[in-house]
Amino acid sequence: MIRGMPKPVRNFHLPLPEPLYRRLQDVAARANRPATAVARYAIESWLRHQRKAAVREAIAAYAAGAAGRREDLDPDLEAASLEALRPQAKTRGRRSR
Q1: Which of 28, 49, 91, 95 has a Cα-to-Cα distance from 18 of 20 to 30 A?
Q2: For the whole model, what pTM was predicted?
Q3: Which residues contact 37 (CB under 8 A, 6 or more apart)?
Q4: What is the pLDDT along the chain (97 residues), one digit of tens a residue?
Q5: What is the spatial distance between Cα 44 and Cα 41, in angstroms, rounded to a whole number?
């Protein structure tokens, strides 16, 4: 592919129920954007949300599987985090007169 050339675009036929089609048209008109651009944005946003949810689920599954095992938490990291979270003693200085 030559640099600067647009990426290939594929067409996708998507029949919509009338109420959804009207909502899409209304939003596109209010945004002064083509309905296809609004639909593309909505699909991209949904797919991004799905990918993030899948990553969160994979992390949660890994954490559940690693709980209590050596991979659960590095002892040095745990000690450092506890030290960082420990409240610092407040020192009250006397005012000089």
Answers
A1: 49
A2: 0.62
A3: 28
A4: 567 767 888 999 999 999 999 999 999 999 999 999 999 999 999 999 999 999 999 999 988 888 878 767 778 888 888 888 888 766 565 555 5
A5: 5
Asked whether the beta carbons of 71 and 63 are under 8 A apart, the reply is: no
b (16+ CB within 10 A) / e for 62-92: eeeeeeeeeeeeeeeeeeeeeeeeeeeeeee
Whole-number Å distance between alpha carbons of 35 and 88:
57
> By CB neighbour count within 10 A (0-12 exposed, 13-18 middle, 19+ buried), where does 39 fall?
middle
List the structure tokens of 44. Answer: 């991209």
User: Cβ(15)–Cβ(26) under 8 Å?
Assistant: no
88 CA to centre of own chain: 34
